Amino acid sequence: MTAVPLSDPPGAPQARLDDIDIPEAAGPSVRARFARYGSIYRWMLLATLLCGSLSTMLAATTINVALPAIIGAFGLGQDQAQWMSTAFLASSTIAMLANAWAMSAFGPRATYLVGMGTFIAGSLLGAISTTLGLLILSRAMQGVAAGLLQPMSMFLIFQTFPDNQRGTAMGIFSIGVVLAPAFGPALGGISVDLISWRLVFIATVPLALIALPMAAALMPDRDSERGTARPPLDWVGLGLVAIAVVGLLSAFAGGNRDGWDSDITLIKITAALVAGAGFIWWELRHPFPALNPAIFRHRQFATAGVVIAFTGMAIYGSTYLIPLFVQMIQSYSPTAAGIMMIPAGLAMVACFPLAGRLTDKLDTRLLLVFGVACFAGSAWLMSGITALTPYWLLVGWLILSRIGISFCMPPANTTAVRGAPPHLLASATGGASFLMQVGGAFGVNLLAILLQRRLIFHGQHLSVQMTESNAEMLYQHRLAFQELTVRGYPQLPAFRNAFEPLSARIAQEASVLAFRDCFLVVAIGFAAVLVAIAIMPKPRLTPPQQPPAGASQKQP
Fold this sequence. Notes:
Elements: H1 12-18, H2 28-37, H3 41-62, H4 67-74, H5 78-81, H6 83-97, H7 99-128, H8 132-160, H9 163-194, H10 198-202, H11 205-218, H12 235-258, H13 263-285, H14 299-328, H15 334-339, H16 341-359, H17 364-382, H18 391-406, H19 409-418, H20 425-464, H21 471-486, H22 491-497, H23 499-527, H24 529-534
């Protein structure tokens, strides 16, 4: 088969391209693919992007319903189990910052193939892991792949679809992306019930295997002139932000076990804070920063960024807590826990387009207030949850929360990007994605720690009341003792074993109270976002204009 040249020669190939509406931003490699496949190429590429994104984004949430099974298999605490979610989010956050460099240095095709290969290898490693360390490594590999692949999709859609088709393309892609968190828990639950939690790691691999050969044939290569040097990667910036993010997450996760005032915890926190300060100092001086801190000098971006970060906490934190509660407290199967998330996901699919359209017509602060009120109200309702709360009532509360998120995400992202001047546009889009992922990582991390600490607190508080002066405790113990003696137990073993039902009830009640505390904190924390909205300037409908050459570019 004759290869298609990157530069289109005059004649037939050029005539074919003239009949195709190719965006001006398309590079030679994209044009070569159009010359080879025709106008259908853009839709074939979109299908490839959707397969890859679905496989990685499904993996982000399928693990949540498998956590109780993994906790039981490895004897983990909440502070350890949360790394299944946190490792994915933290690694994808850091990899996201390297995406632009990877595409410039190696091209979309090589970046995509390496990312998808890393995802498949991480998935297989998770399925055969026998230690917690290997499980965390496998999740980190999956997260790196997600961070490399997800930002690429919008870039290629803008390179292949003309203006009058980009909305349709983004709509198709966005629906798939929004449905992934909705159906991910259901897929994970079915996998656990059918075989074991190990199937969760490879449940999305078939989609990745479909995307791999499609990407090899359809993805454009790197566009560059012969001899052009590859752009440098900001290794120092990536290293500093990795130390800052992972250091803080590790310090928080290990605080309960190592002690919050222990040397190892203080060293981790100090190293993370120093690395964070060093990252800001370095990025302000680097000519090609991985994340330009200058975007936070614009009040519209900074205040919208707070909403974005808390929205990430809300999405991933609630997706972490709900499946745990219904399985550990209400004894639902993993499949039932996963299916519970589907109606809420469908509500997001319905509300996202509406929120996006209203963003172009209304003051986005009004939409953000409505979204925050809906989610905070849902979390407040869940703060009164009990072991007997009906299944469909929980589903209704989840739907309300997803309506709130739908009216936070598009307006907040649009407001943030519009608040950045053109020369910081790329940094603004990358910064918004960074804040969403970091918010999600710390949301899961902190909620898991809070859950364990409140579980210990309530367990101790309830146990103290179990004394000889507690008539109800004595009555329940006597009933259990009599039942055991009727079964033939000797009196002394029966007396001792009669305390076990009481201990189980105390543990369950402490768990319910701990979950309620977590939901209450989420409600209060998300309601506090209203402060950021209150100080947000009236959002611009368009990005500020680039100052003319030679004019002062002083940041407001």
